[in-house]
Amino acid sequence: PYGAAIIAFSLFSLALFMGAARSLIPRGEALLVALASPIAYLCLMNGQTGILTGVLLTFGYAWLDRRPILAGVCIGLLAFKPHLAVLAPLVVSVSGRWGRGSAAGATVIDFFGATVLAFGIEPWRAFVENLALTSKVLNMEDTLPWARIPSVFIMLREFGVGQDIAYAIHWLCAAGVAGLTAWVWRGDAPADLKAATGLAAACLIPPYLFDYDLVVLCGAAALLLRAAGTGAIPAGWPTLIALLLLGPFLAPLATAATGGQPLFFLATAGAFAALTTHAWPARTPDMDTARAGTRA
């Protein structure tokens, strides 16, 4: 029955969320991080997969060096929500972690095969057909609640910008985010800071995602808290962590009060900008020179 299934899935999601927080931060702060994440509760109330995708993407990036095969498996399992993992191939390639990409590709194939054996091909056919439907309804405010979609595209559409121009600007911004993410991952920033930057960037790439998908930012906050415990990131991290945890929740409230959508998107963009700024000093010209010499 649907009622029993949604309760079971919600309890599983909550246990997964708490377990992930505890795994990343094996200290007392783990519970605080979990409890201070109102966006996770929003996800649970909607019965959505945001917690599952957030945990998979978080560990997909956090384990790239520590547990490379498992990292690839986590990334591959995101085949059911690929728009949030679209930067993963870029991260893997620019950082030279090709083995993880192989594990992710094998997982996608196995995942597809297992679901076909269990449920037939129809769910995947419906998945592909739904992609076209989503693209169509994304432009219809009376069909989707634009105020809950934190993307550049929707922000511009809310301001009355035409569809084609809004898409063009969105993809230009997405390209910029991808470029900055690649820059950070090629640098010498701490691994947890790189992973947190990749998680924030994932929320800025797709034109279509909902507020409950921003659970991904909770993973970024947890990684920053872990990095702060080792002194790997500079001062100012408490404010950034608060922005990651509370921004996705407070922004829509401010949006409702002001009647404008951009505050929602700006919360995520602000977190990404702050993360990139923190990582930037770790990027040195000497490293680029050394890489150039190695390639030569």
Task: Kindly state the percentage of residues in helix.
Answer: over 70%
The Cα radius of gyration reads 19 Å
Topology order in helix (H) and strand (E) letters: HHHHHHHHHHHHHHH
Morphology call:
globular
The largest sheet, given as strand count, sense and whether it forms a barrel, is: none
Strand content: under 5%
The first-to-last residue Cα distance is 63 Å
* Unreliable residue runs: 284-296
Class by alpha and beta content: mainly alpha
Mean pLDDT: 78
Number of strands: 0
Total number of helices: 15
Q: What this model shows, in words?
A:
The protein is globular and about 45 Å long. It has about 300 residues and is an all-alpha fold. The protein has helices spanning about 1-25, 30-35, 40-45, 50-60, 70-75, 90-95, 100-120, 120-135, 150-160, 165-185, 190-200, 215-230, 235-260, 260-280, 285-295. It has 15 helices and no strands. Residues about 285-295 have low confidence and may be disordered.
Can I get a quick summary?
With 296 residues, this protein is mainly α. The protein has helices at 2-24, 29-35, 38-46, 50-62, 68-76, 88-94, 98-119, 122-137, 152-158, 163-185, 191-202, 216-229, 237-258, 262-279, 285-295. Helices cover 72% and strands 0% of the residues.
Please describe the structure with a list of short key phrases separated by commas or semicolons.
296 residues, mainly alpha, 72% helix, 0% strand, disordered C terminus
